[in-house]
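Follow-up to my post from last week.
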Amino acid sequence: MSVDLAPPRTAVFAPTARPGRSRVSGHHRSRAVELTGLVSEALSVRAEDLMPGTPQLEVTPDRVATLARSCVSEARADAETDAARARDLYLLALDLQVLALDLQQEELVLRNRRLGECADSLARLRGIPNSQDLVDAVCQELVSRCDFGRATISRVDQGMWLPRKAYFAAADASWFDDWIDQAIPLHGHTPEARLLTERRPALVLDTTTAPVHRDIIVESGQSQSYVVAPLISRGTVVGFFHCDHFPTQRRASDVDRDVLGAFAEGLARLHERLVLMERIDAQRAEVGSVLENAVRSLPEALGAVPRPREITPARLRVLAELTAREVEVLDLVVGGATNRAIASRLVIAEDTVKSHVKQILRKLGVTNRAQAIARAAGTAPD
Amino acid sequence: MGTLQLYPAPLEVEANAVALRREIVDAKLRAMLATAALPPAAPGLDDLRLAEPLASGDDELGKLDELFAATERAMNAVTEKLLPAPLLAARRVNLALDHVQAGATLTDVMRAVPSELCWAGDFDRVLFSRVEESSWVPATWYTTDPGSAATVAFGQLVHGSRFTLSNGSIEAEIVRRRVTALVTDAAEETRTFPPLLSVAECQSYIVAPVVSGEAVVGLLHADAAASGRRLAEADRVTLRAFADGVGLILERMALVEALAKQRHLIADALAAAERAVAAIADAPVSLAPRPPEPIATSHRAEEPLAHDGLTAREREVFALLVSGATNAAIADRLTVSETTVKSHVKHILRKMHVGNRAEAIAKYLRDGNNLGVSR
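User reply:
Got it. Predicted complex:
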């Protein structure tokens, strides 16, 4: 097949990483056990002493190459005295080297694959529509797709480290809740403090000897070895990713560091783009609410403004016909007052009020108070 | 698996044991070089090619020692040069993307993309094209081999061209499926684009989509024909990561632009409001004619009426009452008996909590037109 298409981006979202799985194929591992047996026979050394812990520990090219060297130094010593044994040892050493080359090839393919999965992860995360959801989803993606056992994301604010979210493949994550948004001061030579200025991902091979934040990393997190990468936005470190292989014994490596570093750079791009989208919406909402508030607060802010008493054309006609006293009486009538109430209000006799009302009705050309009110208020038909 | 048969039984005594292992080691090193897909001229790769043995024909132990030492050196070269290569490429991709993102305008970005990708992925030639509807249009390109006849011919082919995304072509499939394709044997591949291929003179190349927003907006073609390097899976990973990054950068540019534009639009709108407000304040006083009455809109009638508790009939009575009509006039108008009107008025006064009709009108005037009666 000459055209090789990567799986589409809409690949099914299913966790494939099995924590604790060996990274060396079963075939190579059994070959390593077989050859170690032969070396132990040839050199009269116990197999456990040749490769301590095998096969529990990883079979690495370095370990296998070391075995090959042991065979060859023995072969060189034997070359003069026992040529046949020397030849056997050389051939065994070469078989070990071939295995070591296979392991190297496997490692090379694995590195390419991890970087490819890192790109796949970022492509999937690209579909998340807001920055909060992105931050919430990213740790699970790192664990499920990028071959880590645990992942956490933290923010950095004014020299403080604030853990934000974690995802653990096969371990209890409840301890992390106590650390969420707890400000951890960043100082000294811890990898996290150095990250602020160096802005490069870092690898901690052994937390027992390295200067680390013991409380969260060792006491709470029980991490033996981890990688940490900065999230950089516009030249500033705004957050961290921490990853390790807990609960397996596998140590973090320079590959882990670089994979996480590449992932963090890609994620920073995804995140910044979402922040920009959210700013456009926020700007729009802000200008709307500012203007609305301004218009709503104008009357209060201005206080009392001198305004004339409103006068309708109907009232103007009424005023033209009535005397000042009659207008006073009419206004009280319009307010619903009785003759008695008007008399007491204006301090005049009730008979006087009656006389005024009679004049008003006559001048307005109406027959009762209700009509007078309607005429004065402009509710009557003209 | 093919690897199984390469392992000879250990400690066998056949005559060509050394030659056989030599072949195996050589094959493994070749396979690893192909996987890493480094440029042939990259420094430090000499140890990965086994030299002819120096030991004489019958010195078998000498040959064995020589092969062991050569393999040791080769393994060191793998550790130092091949294994870090994918990680370094990933690092270079991110650095290159930072450079691309530094471009101030779309033109800067379009121009930076091909050269940055050549550097990041060790490619010799990169073509960046726009995808417009059903065709792709070469926009910018870069080559590490500017003087050659192939480059000149390639330039003539792509300059000002527009290629159709024809059914069945690799480019069309990439736009449709949004995947990055590695063509490892271009001459055998039927879906390639013949004119481009004959001019480009490359055995293998990679094509990646550039996705911005919802759409595929660009295509990136990369090859390493000038140095004769055969592209591998590692190169596809590199190109894919870079193309995804370029898509994000284009999205980011559009967003930054939209944000700035919106800011200007808001500032313009506020300035316009300021001017309008000033114009109202500063306008000369004149005897202006009355502006035309706004045309009454139909929805006004549908506005929910204030909850005054009046029945439809009571509202009719009240509208007449407010106009000053007597009970007799109301009865006449609604063609009901005066007793009925009296009863309606009584209910209205009670519901309005007033003692007489003058008070009812007064209250109506005070509270405004919220009793469902138009003034």
